[in-house]
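Quick one: co-fold with iron/sulfur cluster.
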Amino acid sequence: MKEESLFLRKDFFEILKIADHCNFEYYINTNGSFITESIAKKIKKTRVSKICVSIDGPTKKIHDKIRGYNGAFTKATNAIKFLLKEKIIVNGIITLTKNNYLYLYLYETLNFLKKIGVTKVAIMLLATVGENNKDLVIPFDEWSKLLKQLSIDKLNGNLPVDINIVATSEAMCQWELFLPLLNDLDLYNLWVDKNKSMAIKTGFSCTAGKRNLAIDGSGNVYGCSLMVSNKELIAGNIKEKSIKSIWNDSLIFNNLRSLTLENIKGPCKDCLYLNECKGGCRACAFNFNKDILESDYRCPLIILKECDYNEKKINEF
Ligand code: SF4
Ligand code: SF4
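Sure, here it is.
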């Protein structure tokens, strides 16, 4: 579950009660702004497995600037303190953008989180979907340098907290992790939980409509949260149909389940790494070409091929 709109709902704790009754395993992603001492006490009575609080910088100045309002940092850090006081598991989330990816900032943020009692942090890479500003995505060469340094620090036990890198796709071999470490697969193996991937031999490893679904505030159902905001990918609406029938009968979900890598279009089709990478993220691919079968054009290999192609064209010209 994510987004602050959850905490704005009067029936928020009713929803959690139903989730508990159904034995769901769930966690909540939040910026912490609505978590007061009394909300933390109420959360303690639920069976939520953890609360993930976003902290994008080590100081008020940096975090508030990234989040766009004064007081964001104080609210997030207070939320963490209230939750930890109730002995609720709290993970940190750092969304890396051009505004906060510098090694120094990142380490200060990790050290700050450690100081206030957070021991596990997910570092998320910005996806180029929805309202995310594409200009904020870290250049791939800068990301590669940072990932190599983080990998060496992890190998040597020099990270202040346990970190996990969350790339956009759940591919068997995420290009965001694989490509920077192509020449050092031992370092790559530090980050990959092979058991987690549900990739099958010939299929995309995208879990949308297979293991995932997402429901927006209007009741529209999508394969995953990155698909939300693309009307073409709505599988149904829970105000009109049961979630069971949407899950079982929706054309989009059945389509997502039946596609194989042989169907992929564009440059990924000829990529050496297609069988490992499984074509990156379907939502990102759709975002570029309005086609779920297209290539993930965020991949630097594609960008390089495009450059070569353009250069060739220019030479021909
Ligand atoms: S070109 Fe496509 S298949 Fe190859 S690494 Fe990039 S995203 Fe994966
Ligand atoms: S579209 Fe698929 S690959 Fe991309 S984030 Fe969603 S589940 Fe993962």
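If it helps, Strands lie at 27-30, 50-54, 90-96, 120-125, 162-166, 214-215, 220-222, 236-237.
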